[in-house]
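note to self: the first set is below, dont mix up w the second
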Amino acid sequence: QGNMAFAGKYEFENDENYDDFVKKIGLPSDKIEMGRNCKIVTEVVQNGNDFTWTQHFPGGRTTTNSFTIDKEADLETMGGKKFKATVKMEDGKIVADFPNYRHTAEICGGKLVEISSTSGVVYKRTSKRIA
């Protein structure tokens, strides 16, 4: 708790099971194409338990989720749907239950590792620290 391990900027490095996962959660095919091997830059600002999590997509689109650990927040899914969730911190991982998947994020060896899982499909995205 209270460590600033997440703060920084991370650039997409690789992922696993992208197609299976996005089809399972019902992303439209244009969004699937847009996100495939997309050099997303994730910027995390952390102030104690308060986070601002911004994803910068090529072409200038950004998605920002701001939340406080253990407090309900308004968040947005990969597909742009708004929802409410309480983000938790479990064993150094950020954990959020999205409407149709569970998302975790942790720092492993200086990389940001995000895992989303739904009905047996596990999508893993690894990003390297660039700032």
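second set (the one i keep forgetting abt)
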Amino acid sequence: EDVPSQTFDNKDYSCGKETFPVYESIFTEEGETIRKIAIEIEKPPQIEIHVWTIRRGILRHLYIEKLSKKEFEGLPYFKLITRTTLSQWKIFHEGEAQINRMCESRVCRTELEDLVKVLYLEKSEKGHC
């Protein structure tokens, strides 16, 4: 009998939920840190990049750009950091909007770090589906 094979890429330890690759790029330019978090979405096939400009720990600017996979492949400095579900990405996106409002005038370094951690799936969920 045919048994469907499990693929590590897509449904590894997220209880059969579809997961998507998340990439990160961080670089410093003229005293500002530019941090980019990107997710590869299948439908429509595109990359959504969230760009944070941080100066002295304060989130100065946040914007989102969308690229085709081909355009994204030509960009340097991105590394795969995890895979996440669309529900986790939604939590990230909503948290990002809250932090953007909250951190216009104060340092939010730890809040930004905690927000990125939302994207990492808990491996312990495997046995609790």
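remember for set 2: Residues 22 and 80 are 6 Å apart (CA to CA).
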